[in-house]
Design brief:
single chain; alpha+beta; three-stranded antiparallel beta sheet; 3 helices; 6 strands; globular
């Protein structure tokens, strides 16, 4: 089984994507301006698609494609 998104949580600076296998993966919250501007309650109201490839926040009309996010490598990132 491939790693699958099973939960999402936040702190003041990061979005944490909890995976079915392995540790949570963190991403800077400023990569997601809509989520950064959202209230805590809006961030907590999300759904994960049945295939675990989309995370959807219906109240703020935001969604994240998990495979695309996991495969993203910033140009200035190290190895």
């Amino acid at each position: 089984m491939n790693r699958a998104a099973v939960d999402v949580h936040f702190d003041s600076r990061y979005l944490f994507l909890d995976m079915s296998e392995g540790p949570a993966v963190q991403f800077p919250l400023d990569w997601f301006p809509v989520l950064q501007a959202a209230t805590v309650a809006e961030r907590e109201h999300f759904a994960i698609s049945m295939d675990h490839e989309q995370i959807i926040w219906p109240e703020i009309d935001e969604d994240v494609n998990v495979p695309a996010l996991l495969s993203y490598r910033p140009e200035n990132a190290g190895p």
